[in-house]
Every structure is written in C-alpha cells, then in structure tokens.
Design goal:
about 110 residues, two-stranded parallel ribbon, 5 helices
C-alpha cells in the first residue's frame, strides 16, 4: 500500500476537526506527523480544491487569528462559517482556551 504524501496526511487531519472547534496550523502539522510543517499546512489549505469539502475554516493561528487569505472569501467568510458553527470570535480571534480541538498525538 502506498504511503500518503504530506498533503494527504494534512487533509486527513483537517477532515477530523469537529464542528464548533478549531485547530492551529501547528497542531495540524503535529497531528500529520511533523510539528515543523505549520507553513506547509497553510500552503496545503491554500491550494485545496473547494470540491474537497474540507472544513478549512476551522484552522486558525496558534493565537486564534483567522486568515486574511481564506480561500476566495477572505477573513469575513471564515468568520461567518465559524460563527455559524457557534465558535465565538472577538477582535478577529477565536478564544483558543474555549474552542480549540482537544485532539492529542499518541
């Protein structure tokens, strides 16, 4: 069986983020296999096709900031999608203590 490439590993992790929670780029990188891949996570999410149906809007910076370059909709679209799921945002940031996905690496 062929091993998954780095993007496939990242997409597998992003697909698991539950509604109403968020994960940081670094958290996704670590869960995908290498905590130093945070920038790779950003690139992978930037190029993922809309048709993939991944909840990319649930990925934010480690301090909860939403992305200025979120797909084609920009920051307002990401905020809109997160708020629709019940994630609170104040000052362009998600409260990571409250909304961060608690998935751990084993």
């Amino acid at each position: 069986m062929k091993e998954k490439n780095i993007f496939e590993k990242i997409y597998d992790v992003v697909a698991q983020i539950p509604e109403g929670t968020v994960a940081s780029y670094g958290q996704i990188a670590e869960l995908a296999g290498n905590r130093r891949w945070a920038r790779v996570v950003g690139y992978a999410l930037h190029i993922v096709p809309d048709s993939a149906g991944l909840p990319c809007h649930r990925v934010v910076t480690k301090d909860g900031r939403v992305s200025d370059a979120f797909l084609s909709g920009g920051v307002n679209r990401q905020v809109e999608l997160l708020e629709k799921e019940g994630v609170g945002i104040a000052g362009g940031r998600v409260d990571m203590e409250r909304y961060q996905w608690k998935k751990c690496v084993f």
